[in-house]
Amino acid sequence: MSLRLEVSNVLKRFTRKPVFASTSFTAASGDIIAIVGSNGSGKSTLLKIIAGVVSPSSGTCTWYKDEKEVDEEAMASMVGFVAPYLELYNDLTAVEHVNFIGELKGVEASKNAVAHLEHFGLDKTIAESSRLIGHYSSGMKQRVTLAMASVGDPSILLFDEPSSTLDEEGIQILFDHIRTASSQGKVVIIATNDSRERELAHRSVQLQLY
Predict the structure, then answer these.
(1) CB–CB of 31/39 below 8 Å?
(2) Is 47 in contact with 158 (CB distance < 8 Å)?
(3) Does residue 52 come out as left (phi exceeding 0), alpha (psi in the -120 to 50 range) or beta?
């Protein structure tokens, strides 16, 4: 399977004012791209446009799979999304979160939910327990979010400041996961100002304030 992303003259306005200057770039299977820029430059907004959850005010953002345009319905199953603003439910367990995403994607996740969580360094005893997310630390919650994003083995991975709440062990697990995804031909896009995340990328897209 080959993947290709074409971002052409994309611009987003809020209350008539553009968030960032018109932006164009491409990505293909195996690429790790860093979206960089100062605070408020629109990195998160552009990532949401790439994910298909926000529409650009002008320009186009198009994904192709085997040279055929990917429609909105197919995108939902192809994308794994991680961001600090994604809400977790305090009254659910980690396994219940993973299974919930599996239901949304039409994937049977219950048999390997704990394995997903262990892969990102969440202790098996905790993952299997009835401990609710509301009692997790921020780093533990991030590991759960990463596990949720891996459900269904998505071919497009979109990360917004993914290592910001992780300890050193968690960061290495995350980076190894990203490198493996790239070697498998997946597309990884990271919105970041972290120097190590930038070094992980094959190239960067610099956003300019409008």
Answers:
(1) no
(2) yes
(3) left
What's the pTM value of the predicted model, to 2 decimals? 0.94
**Ramachandran quadrant class, 141 (left: phi over 0; alpha: psi -120 to 50; beta: rest):** alpha
pLDDT of residue 175: 98
Domains of the chain, with CATH numbers? 3-206 (3.40.50.300)
- The span from the CA of 116 to the CA of 190, in Å, is 21
User: Which two structure tokens, joined as six digits, stand for 140?
Assistant: 């533990």
Give 18's contacts (C-beta < 8 A, 6+ positions apart): 11, 12, 57, 210
Quote the DSSP letter at residue 133: G
- Residue-wise pLDDT tens digits, 14-52: 877 788 889 999 999 999 999 999 888 899 999 999 999
More reliable by pLDDT, 19 or 194? 194
pLDDT of 166 over the 60 cut: yes
